[in-house]
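Teaching assistant here, posting this on the class forum so everyone can see the example we discussed in section. The complex has two components, and the goal was to see what a joint structure prediction looks like when all of them are supplied at once.
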Amino acid sequence: MGLELNKLSEQVNKMGATVASRSAEIEARLPKARATLEKITNNDPVLEKKIERALSMNWTGAIPTSEPVHEVFPCPKHPDRANVAAADGSQVYPDRHGIAIYYLINTGSIIFRHGLDEAPICSSYPSLFYEDHDLYPNEVLIPSSLVNARRDIAELRELAQIAEREIKTAPTLLMLDNGLLLYLGLQTAEHRQSEEILGEYLETLGEIESTNACIAGVIDRPRAANVLRLLRLYDMENDMFNTDELRSLGNYSQLTDRMLFGTLQPGERSAIFVNASPQNLERYMPMGQKIMFYYVNAGTRDQSVILRVEIPEWVANQPEQLSLTHSGIVEQARFGNGYPYVLIRSHELAVVSWTERGHLDEMVGGSMRRSGLSAVISRKAQGKQWTNSAKRRYGQ
Amino acid sequence: MSDINSEVKTNSSIPIGRMLRSDTTGFTFGCLLPEPEVPLFGDFVKAPAQQGLTEIIGIIHNIVIEDDLFVRQLIAAPDLPEAYIQDQRRNRQIPIEVSVLSVGYSSENGMMQGLPPQPPVTLDYIKHCSHNDMITFTDRPDYLALILNSKETPVEELIGAALQRASKARPIEDRALFLLQSGKELARLLSDDLSKLDSILRRIQVKT
């Protein structure tokens, strides 16, 4: 029967009312959070002691830097000439019901030469993975998390190559549409692959650093609460908290950093913080790639758009590079309705539509048949093909 | 052909787009802006049909530049730099949709004026008609009745543009005679609609 929307109308109405009521409750907690942010001063020995103890308990808050935590920074002037590049990737996961087991990573990139009137350079590079060592790295079929990690590496490698070429002509900003802390949701069995991938990722970040280009990971509608965890820590009476207390957001429950920094005016950014996640401090920091972040309003007076921007420490420490991430993202967002234009375009260049995926399957099937192999999908996949097409109902 | 007017496209070997959809009376093809030969209203084009046994001849009567949500939000952007415009125009694959009225076809028996036996098939290449194609096809004026009877085309503008194209494909010394003969045929077909006849004749009159 599929989804019968008429049976959902009452539930949807109730949901709307609940969401509105919950939103009002959450908003009411914001003034207290903002007041606490105002109270925090740098080099507060009590807070520093709390942070030190929290870090030993796998705290995932935000560590203040030399910038006052409540300081607001206006958008610097964008350079007249700069290169802004972005890369994005999409994937087709291995499908055991398909005609053959393979996976695909398609990387799209765009190089925007700000200050020149020429059309940007657009590229996309599809790679097909079908060898045993690609598909069965641990004697079982590669998990989707590992495909995702390989896609992330491909994006970063593409940006590293762009950086090497483009930096020769102008200051160069590279952008990714996700955070810079690689998410490796791999099982223990994939530990070795996880180590290899993280090593390659950090090495590539190092290559980008050596080109003197800067890089920023941009997250739209971020759900992170690192700064709120700092506020929660500040509120604690002493440093004798336990893990459960540390994990809870207390009075700031369900708030996000995005809400906290909702007062930023168009173009303004927050202070920079260090992401205190253990992965960052234990793996990234020793390699000189500690990840820091700030929030920026890339919207307009009519519509705020708070983005989270993640940058490596070496970008944060160089005023010109930091400034380019800030002004570059704001400038690009002017033409993307609050989201950087190059990120919209790189996604468009990378995305593999269902139609394209169908065409790829046809190509693979043809190649198999030419090699004397049968190319059929599973009975289950065939059944889905029959039933997922547009439904036709007669007599209704 | 002693005189080829530079305004008329001459290279009929370069595809200008690919078929999107079709029926017996006409077809629509898509092309991108950077294509070497951007089609024009009133151009004669041809499309293969019946697995290459025939070529359908048609006249472009509408050109639609499609938009999408991304383009729409850029419309409102103040001071849009040229690079963004170039990206949208040159890099993004938003097709221009070109609608064609079928007016005849060619086969091993020569050129025929009238509706083709089968429409062209999706993704077939569309090409411009060469000067020779246009001269041969418009040698007889029967296709004018097909245009006059079409419901969805701007008839007067289309006949005017098509006759100008066909005229300019001919040597200068033949053009006036061609337009005169076409005008006579139109006078016969539009004997009961003198205002339409007058409107078309004004569009094709030879300047002396």
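For the discussion questions: Helices of chain B lie at 69-75, 82-91, 131-137, 143-149, 155-168, 172-189, 194-204. The interface with chain A takes residues 70, 73-74, 77, 80-84, 86-87, 89-92 of chain B (CB under 8 Å). Think about how each of these relates to the inputs above.
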